[in-house]
Amino acid sequence: TTENQRPRPSRASIVCVNCQLRPNAKQDVLLLSTSNRGAVLSVVQEWLSKSAVAGALTFFPPDPPLYKFHRISKDGVQLPEFEDDVIVDSDDDSSDDDSNDESILDQSDLEYESGTPSDRAKYDDMKKKRSAKKKGKGKKKKKSSDKKKKKKKDPAAQLTERNLKLRKRAKTRNSRDRRDAATKVKYRFEPDPRLAKPPRFSGSMEAVKIGPQKKTGAYVAAVIYRVRKDKLTDRTKTIIYSHGNATDVGAMHYISSVLARSCNVNVVAYDYSGYGASGGIPLEANTYRDIKMVYKYTLEQVADGDESNIVVYGQSVGSGPSCYIASKRENVGGLILHSPFMSGMRVLTPSRALACLDIFPNIDRIKKVNCPVMVIHGQLDEEVDVAHGVALHNAVKADLRRECWWVPDRGHNDITDGPGKM
User: By 3-state DSSP, what share of the chain in percent is helix, strand and coil, each rounded to 5?
Assistant: First the structure.
């Protein structure tokens, strides 16, 4: 872009982010300007869009995840675990042209499917070579570590690097999940042993990957808690649980089990794209694709085709995709919002000057919801003020409002802490 093509910003209201996106390219500049109560946004590079910036500032998946999805072949053999070969926000200097990753995944899966000693020996040999390769990279890192300490990357460069690595990781995961689906691989869910163990649940628990998503090719990791068949009735509900930000289905195992056990409901807990064992990249648009895919799967595979028995439950960031799907599905049974926000940008500022960067417009979508709605919010919430919950409750159609729960002695993340609240 040229200087003349950029909007002329007003004084004292400029935010500039320099992003070096590719070799020999001029720095692209994101200009935010507030003038005459308006907002001007210029994003020069297409892929570094509002969604990419918002995704980097909004989503923080636990790293490493707080659970494992063990891969089991159709013959009952546990398959080898593969790393993504990409660690987000690391100083790994590996290039994106690591074309051997996908062939390695394909080859090793076939070898372990056969189960012969010679095949396993080949895999072990391959693993040693990869390990030696990583050690070689480690030595190079040590030599250049002093230089890296002296030269710190600016935030925009870190954002760009993070996006590239997330894309590479997504490509590797999507490829692996596609092969798993083709070879009918199943999964076994194992929560992190450091997490608290929930009360015994008499029903069944199933780990699945739902997909692929048509546009992104991603598969979503989900854990399904099913009520025992002898306890099922025509009115048994199924909760689709969209969790908060810096957590995953492993950390939500306790509350999912408690909900299923004490309320006698099925629970479908899933991870957003880029979280846990899910493929894809964590972006606002992808959370909508995720919940649409999970909703369809739940309707067909868990709720026996009856939408009125599905209750959508969204906690914190999960209120975004939950409000979205509830506003799209006329016959959904209910919506529960736990520590929700009016919109992403409104958490930071009530001003609408930066509305062009806003995400998850829950306050607008809640008006289109045609099912009963219950709002839960802690009065001591310092991350998302309880005023957000009050505003959403008041925006629900009068005949669909259900009794809200303003928890007097709780904040954002501790509403269900303690046996009384749980």
Answer: 40, 20, 45
CA torsion sign for 394, 355, 291, 199 is negative
Buried b (16+ CB within 10 A) or exposed e, 115-126: eeeebeeebeee
- Give 267's DSSP letter: E
Q: Which residues have a Cβ under 8 Å from the Cβ of 246 and sit 6 or more positions away? A: 60, 61, 62
Q: For 173-207, write each residue's pLDDT tens digit.
A: 999 999 999 999 999 999 999 999 998 899 999 99
Residue 412 catalytic?
yes
Selected catalytic residue, list 108, 256, 257, 316: 316
Q: What is the pTM of this model?
A: 0.75
Nearest-5° Cα angle at 336, 332 to 340: 130
Catalytic residue among 253, 381, 388, 393: 381
CA atoms of 168 and 85, how far apart (whole Å):
9
- Is residue 381 part of the annotated active site? The answer reads yes
> What is residue 15's DSSP assignment?
E
Beta bridge partners of 370: none
pLDDT tens-digit map of 10-32: 333 323 333 333 333 333 323 33
Given the residues 253, 338, 377, 412, the one annotated as active site: 412
